[in-house]
Amino acid sequence: MAANDIGIDLGTRNCRVYSTGRGLVLREPTVAVYDKNTEKIRAIGEEAQQMAGHLTSNLEMIWPIRQGVIVDYIVMEKMLKYFVSRAMGRRAFRKPRISITVPSGITEVERRALEEATYQAGARAVFLVEEPIAAAIGSGVDITKPFGNMIVDIGAGTTDVAVLSLGGVVVSSSIKVAGDNFNRAILDYVREKHSLFISEDTAEQIKITIGTAVEEAAPRTMEVKGRNIITGLPRVSRLTSEEIREALKDCTNQIVEAVHSVLEKTPPELAADIVDRGIVLTGGGALLQGMDSLIEEKTGVNTLTVSDATLVVAVGTGMFAEMRTRMDA
Q: How much is the pTM?
């Protein structure tokens, strides 16, 4: 097996790289620190993330992907080059073939931009893999068979819903509501209901600790530190999981509606397969407590969150890269 073909799960918040023959070799935040004085990038990935909160006026944090779309082409190109170089190390005898994920709703212009950025990063050949297909492969779902499989991948920037059969996408929908929207909804709720400014990192912790998509028999609570909007002074507030469910209700309902819409457009034979086989939930957003239960309740279809939900897209992209390697051998 060639050791220089790689699969890249290029997420809004994190980039994960899988090397054929070696497995998952890199996980870094998709962020860079830009120096406005020198007009150069000072740091990328983990190093850039560690600088957050300590930046001087001449430094700026840049997230080049927003809701699954490249918004800063130049930074994205340099970031990809850095990640590819890190993943390949000294094993790089020639340019790698790179398989890279894209949201199912990506436009042709966006596809070409990503392809070009990947070639500029040092790829010998580029293969774009739709996220639901990568998620299915990484989850162990055999999409080559003539059966309908539904994948719901809730990432940081987008939620991709797709029905797959015979190796391809039959019906799909991609909405720009996902994990980052959960965080923003929590930020807004805490500001409005508790008159408290909190950081996005704190919102993320709230989501992980007491976030839920369904009512709980025994609501959980959490102390949150922030800055009082009125006095400007530090203050502590106590939040409940029921409050967070209310804060996230609009986001979770939009995801459920996207699933419902795709099911409505699914051919009857494949819809029957989905009823038998269930809905597979992947991505970091799938880890929100009760998200699978909410989808199951609203659709009537058994819904399962896979183990290692945050990694299956990266693993699936890597497995796709390995399949390409074997095909071209």
A: 0.91
> Residue 101 contacts by C-beta under 8 Å, 6 or more apart in sequence?
8, 9, 10, 11, 128, 129, 130, 131, 134, 313, 317
Measured CA angle at 257 (ends 131, 211), to 5 deg: 80
Render pLDDT for 231-246 as a digit per residue (tens, 0 to 9).
Answer: 999 999 999 999 999 9
Cα–Cα distance measured from residue 304 to residue 313, given in angstroms and rounded to the nearest whole number: 16
Please report, in angstroms and rounded to a whole number, the separation of the first and last CA atoms in the chain. 9
> Distance (Å, rounded) from C-alpha 193 to C-alpha 178?
22
- Is the Cα dihedral 89, 93, 95, 99 positive or negative? negative
Count CA atoms closer than 13 A to 176's CA, side-chain side.
7
155 HSE (CA, 13 A, CB side): 33
In the block, tokens 């162990």 appear at 140
Which residues, in sequence order, are CB contacts of 73 under 8 Å at separation 6+?
A: 64, 113, 117
Asked if 79 and 45 touch (Cβ cutoff 8 Å), the reply is yes
On the question of pLDDT at 290 being above 70, the answer is yes
Nearest CA to 114 out of 84, 71, 154, 83 is that of 71
